[in-house]
Amino acid sequence: MEKICEGRVAVVTGGGRGLGRSHALELARHGARVVVNDLGGGPDGTGSDPAVAEAVAEEIRAAGGEAVASGHDVADSDGAREVVRLAIDTFGGLDVLVNNAGILRDRTLAGMSDEDWDSVVRVHLRGTFAPSRAAAAYWRDRAKSTGAGVDGRIICTTSPVGLYGNFGQTNYIAAKGGIASFTLGAAQELARYGVTVNTIAPTAATRLVLALMTDEPPAEFVAKFDPGFVSPVVVWLASPQSAAVTGRIFDVRGNRVALVESWRIGAEILRDEPWDPAALGEVVSDLVAKAAPTPDISGYVQPQEG
Ligand SMILES: NC(=O)c1ccc[n+]([C@@H]2O[C@H](COP(=O)([O-])OP(=O)(O)OC[C@H]3O[C@@H](n4cnc5c(N)ncnc54)[C@H](O)[C@@H]3O)[C@@H](O)[C@H]2O)c1
Hints:
This protein is of the alpha/beta class. It has ten helices and eight strands. An eight-stranded mixed sheet has the order 3-2-1-4-5-6-7-8, with helices on both faces. Helix 1 packs across helix 9 and helix 4 packs parallel to helix 6. The chain is globular and about 65 Å long. Nicotinamide-adenine-dinucleotide binds next to helix 1, helix 4, strand 6 and helix 7.
């Protein structure tokens, strides 16, 4: 087997369960030395348990790999800095940051509490920003001191619902949409240091998804959406092979890898004079008729009935 991440040092946030655990194991299988970070809390972000990260680090070591566990909260600035510091102190550097930690607190908008909003935005958005900032500062200093690019990688995690929308998840959708946009700006900023920034929008049968199902999930659903289908894309993005790809979003479901095309100007109309609001109804109807239709949660535009 060709090991495409041999010798690289990777941090995986939320690496103790679900997708993060799968990414950590697959990165280690491809030769990476891994900091498995996980707060070890519940699906809603409450509680903590250091044994969750430790179990995956131990699984990697038992298979002959190198790993260390971190129970830090990555949405906390000091916690995020300490995770990056742990990689540098333990393995001598950092090459890859996988921002994967996440929680859910689904509510409809009218019933959403401030706490449900803030906690979800905090874990996803600050939990992406804070470790990315710590890693970016390390890579900037290293690039400046060596005068060479660092071949670094940030791989973030958005969600199909953050790109295409869904019912009852405005806190999560706003946070995940923010991560997709963060990718575009961070990719532009960090290119000069030799760092790429890409994002995956995964679908996988993990506790976050299974908890939303009222019935026992069908075995074929669990098999089709095993997190192991998503991790190969993360490993490739983490490897030196992906150096030319940055600012991209990949929708990964089962064995399908798709590139998500970003916001861009669609139908447009120009005129020299300012618009009269009363005249805009007809103009906007015409623009909407000409515009590409909005996809549903699958990411595809469904054929219109009739
Ligand atoms: N499962 C899916 O279909 C799906 C779809 C779209 C996006 N995602 C995203 O994928 C990521 C992984 O989710 P999962 O489905 O594997 O869920 P999961 O609950 O199995 O794993 C998430 C892990 O993140 C950890 N975590 C939460 N807050 C943390 C914090 N502040 N610091 C450190 N660790 C923290 C949790 O303890 C947990 O182990 C999340 O960002 C999620 O939003 C998942």
